[in-house]
Each structure stands twice: as structure tokens, then as C-alpha cells.
Design goal:
Layout: E1 2-9, E2 17-18, H1 19-27, H2 32-39, E3 44-47, E4 51-59, E5 63-68, E6 72-75, E7 88-90, E8 94-100, E9 105-108, E10 129-132, E11 189-191, E12 195-198, E13 205-207, E14 212-214, E15 217-223, E16 226-234, H3 235-240, E17 245-246, H4 252-273, E18 276-277, H5 293-301, E19 305-309, E20 312-313, E21 318-319, H6 329-333, E22 355-361, H7 362-368, E23 375-383, E24 389-396, E25 401-404, H8 405-411, E26 419-425, E27 452-455, E28 468-475, E29 483-489, E30 498-501
Parallel strand pairs: 2-21, 4-18
Antiparallel strand pairs: 1-22, 1-26, 3-19, 4-16, 5-8, 6-7, 6-12, 8-9, 9-11, 10-17, 12-15, 13-14, 15-16, 19-20, 23-24, 24-25, 27-30, 28-29
Helix pairs in contact: 1-4, 2-4, 4-5
Amino acid sequence: MTVLVIDGRGFGHGVGMPQDGAFWMARGGASTNAILGHFYPGTNLGRATGNVRVAVQTSPTLDAVLAFPDGGQVRDGQSGATSAGFPISVPPGGQVRVWFDGSRYFASQPLGAPPQPGSGGPSRGSVTVATARTPGQSPIPTTPTTSPRSTTTLLPPRPQVGATTTTAPPPATTAPKPSSKPPTTAPAASSTRSLWALPPSGGTVAVPARQRRYRGALEALAAPGALRLVNQLDVEQYLLGMGEVRDGSWPAAALQAQAIVARTYALRAMAASGELCDTDRCQVYLGQQAEYGAMDEAVAGTRGRVVVYGIGLASTVYSANGGGISATPEEGFGTSAKAYPYLRSVRYTTGDPGPWTTRVGLTDIAARFTYKGEVTGVRITKTGPSGRATEVTLDGSAGSQTLEGTRFATGLGLRSTLFAFRIEQADTAPPPPPPADILQAPPDQLAPASAATTDAPAAAASESTSVSRRLHVKPAPDRRLLIVLSALALAAVMSGAAATRRPHAAG
């Protein structure tokens, strides 16, 4: 049996800032500005603020359970006005079930429900997880340290957006009907508007099905065949709950660089589509329980700072490990780099280029890429500036078939497109690897948000400052390469004004 052996380096698309590159540069003494300037050459630093909307659960059962560790309210989006049983006041530890019957939204609170255990959450900084882009995968090797460190705990595999909620009650198609039995829930309130769950200032709203808590507001709104929960909050609060790098031992400059590029990515994605997902397709977002001290400090120390190119936000894509050299957009995404001259291939020193090897039988390659014949060989026929494969050719009885490097990599679930081939013989072929994406998409290419018109409650406006889509730029005094960027309308979410959104497909 002929087996193709694929030897590669790195993890992810490789475009922009490799997180391992930021780590090793910072450990070598590089500043945050030096890191950003190296991986996004030609860009400057600026300032921007705004809100983000993050899809955190999609339930095909058309219902969800929300918990309120600190108490709060459920409103129907009418800016706090009393209407049709709203607002519903929820005591600390209470829960509310929300559902959609195809035309109206309903909310009902269990009677006599006791406070939920564990609602207080872990203390800040008590959990460190060495993750970068994917839970359990660290872009750096474990290094000894003499300073005290928290116990490292790996998170369980996170559910994907769109996963069926198994802990939610079965869906209701109509409002609950009167019964002679003692009621277990309060009478349901209903509305034609989407529902909003609001914690008190400094509090959270929890989604028990995902075992996560969120700052800001949670909106429950219908999508085709599903009920979606979308977290709206200030971008600075959002950054605290990200799960991209959760290791307090990282140098401060590396964590600050991560905070700046993540802030920029989020605000640019909001300007482009009005919504983010909470997975690797966008940026990993875990919620309030993921907050820890070192990243809190990195976010606070870079508050409002973003990467800009000209007068706009840069497309600050990043990946876990670039294998010692970053990729161009053509190599990482298969798209043109003309609009992103700052996304270039640059070398960097790394203590761990992330080597990997995958073996796959030629017969499985033929089946995976629907080659109409017997594959006898596989060649890399084009590479990009970083040496990544941009074209792979299959040879065999049916002639030659060419594939884009990114399609070949995703079709075989490879960790990157920085690879080389060799042939081995084996008695039996190894199991073919499952297909998988190379993670994160550029913020301009995220699917637009779900089509719905909603009214955000006025109380939610205190959670963040809405901004406009116009970018006003002027030089800042006494700071070289610094542009003050006032982003004054990225989506008037949580401001009381209606916002129109388009269909969203979570990654």
C-alpha cells in the first residue's frame, strides 16, 4: 500500500501575527509595538471603541434556559416599558425559559426555583489554560519557571454554535394552556419582539446548556429554524472573556499584542457584518468565567488601542503557529492580498515551529478529492513567498487534477499549508484524517448577521458606548506613528435605536 507522508510546520492559516511569534519576540525583549510592526508592517496604532455582538448559542429546539446568578430582568426590547407581562424581574439564582413559537416570543420563570449552585464562579486568575486558537494546543513549549503559577486546567471540548441544546425543555408551539394541576412555572409573558436578558451592573447572565456566563446583555431572537442567543457588550469587556491565549505566564508584551489585534479584529468584523461567532472561525470567546488577571491587565493597559492602515482598521488576522514564517493571504486563505499590503510573509525566530506529520493512503486521497481513477502520485506544483503550498497536483490513471493548497489542506484536516511530501510503503493505509478548516476567517469575510429588526433596551446602553461607522482620524501629539481613531458608528446596538441585520451563518 502506497502512503503519502505529509511533513509540515505550524498551526493555522499563518497570515498576520502567529501567536507563537508574539510570544518568542516578547520573551526576547521586543515591545508590543515592535511585535505589531513586525507582523503588520506599514500599519500604525490608533484608538477605537464600540460594542460587539457575539452569537453564543443557536438552539434548533427554538427555546433556551437563562440563569441569573446576580438577578436581573427579561424585557421585550421596548426600552424598559411595561408591556404584556414584561419586564420579568428575576431574583439572584433564578432562571427563565425563553422560546419562540413561530410568531411570538415567550418567557416564563419557574416557581420556587432555588438558586443554582456554583453561580459565584472562580476567582479571577485562578485558572490558566495554555490555549492559542484551539483548546489544549499551546503554541509554545512548556518552560520551567521559578515564579508561582496557577494549576493548569484544560477546558473540555467546547460545543459548536448550532449544537442541539440537550438540557433545555422541549419546545412549546403555543403559550402554556391552563391546567388543573398546580403550575410549575409562572404565567408566560409574550411579545412579537425579541427578548433581552439584562443582569444588574457588574453582573452576568448564564447559559446553563453551555456552562458559561456572560457580561452585558443577551438577546434571544429567532432565525430560520432556530432560536439564537447573542451577547451584546462593550468590546473591552468582550476581550476579557476571550479564550485565545489563557496563560498568565506569557510576557506582558505578547498578551498586549494579542489584546490589540483581537480588539481590532472584533471592531472591523462588526463594521463589516454586525456580528461575531464565538468559535475559531472568528475569535474564541468563552465569557466571564474565562477572565484572568494577566489578560485583564493586558486589556486595561491597551484600552482602545487598535491597528490601523491609512484611516481604517487593519484586518488583523492571526493564527496559533506560523512555523517560523508568516503567510500571505494567497497562501493562507487563497485570496488576493492587494487590499492588504501589510499582510506579508515575514520570518521570525521561534523555539517551537510546531512540527507535525500526517499519513494518508493514495486511495483515500482519490476518494477524498473525487479523483476519477487511481492516484499514483501527489506533487506540490506551486508555492507562495513563505514556501506554503498554493497548488497541489494529483497524478494518476485519469490524468492530472490540480487543487488549491488550502483546499488540499482542509480536505485532509492538515494543520497548515506549510508542508512537504514523501512516499512510504505500508501493509495497510492509516485511517484517513477527517476534513477540517484552517480556522479563523478574515473579518471582512465573515457571514453577515441574522436578519432581524430589534430594539435594544435603554438600560443596556450603560454597558458600552455606541459608535458610528464613520472613522475620523487626526494625528496625536507627541506620539510617533499614533493616530487617534474615533470610530463613531459601528452599529447602534444597545442604544434604543432599531438595527437591521442580515442572515448569519456561524463558522
